[in-house]
Amino acid sequence: MIDIHTHILPGLDDxxxxxxxxxxxxxxALEDGVHTIVATPHVLPGVFDxxxxxxxxxxxxxxxxxxxxxxAVNILSGAEYRLEPDLxxxxxxxxxxxxxxxxxxxxxELPSAFIPEYTAQTLYEIQLQGVxxxxxxxxxxxxxxxxxxxxxxxxxxxVLAQITSTSITGSFGKNxxxxxWAFIKQGLAHLxxxxxxxxxxxxxxxxxxHKEIQKLLGSKPARQLIQQNPGLVIEGKQVEKPYIPExxxxxxxxxxxx
Length: 258
Known about the structure:
The chain is of the alpha/beta class. The chain has one domain (2-257): Metal-dependent hydrolases (TIM Barrel, Alpha-Beta Barrel). 44% of the residues lie in helices and 14% in strands. The protein has 11 helices and 9 strands. α3 (87-92) links the parallel β5 (80-82) and β6. α9 packs across α10. The longest helix is centred in the N-terminal third of the chain and has 17 residues, at 52-68. It is globular, with a radius of gyration of 17 Å. The mean pLDDT is 95.
């Protein structure tokens, strides 16, 4: 499996606090079946002032330490950018780090409480530069929860959405779980990632979400969301349209279990 959203780099944000914690997270991911991890530290001016070179350097250092400790996980570079009006300008100036530094996909986080009024315009300006925005965990955004049509509109314009694995399994509560599955049901989810912050609590785990999706939807959607599409993202290739089985009886099963 491939995890394109983690906070595994040591000391850069609210994720791994030191190298030992980074190694612990990598061991957990490897045991869970993950072989490739994209390190996506927060970038939020005045709070997490991580620049491109700092992230690339930290990624290279972690890969070296993983090799020295015989942990067979490959770390790729990336970042999670808070959506702000000047984001497209910063991209055009070469400041931003796309996933795997391939100038194809950019992970973007909205404020959790609302959808900023400049969201659609800023994402469009990013797309004009040949870069596809990936909205991180929309199922945890109050605006998208209240108005799924707002997410639908963005996705109809070519934006992608990444759901958190533990939203799928219920760790964030029933409402977020049902929202995550509703987005999947509506074809509004392209990728599942862990958004891991530590070796405990929010750990880098994908297998449970994979099992849940496989159980309810089958092996094809599970493979697409957690293996195939993440692989296409890191390779800088076109992500496939979400495949959802036509039989929706699984939704009734989910409602009963939630």
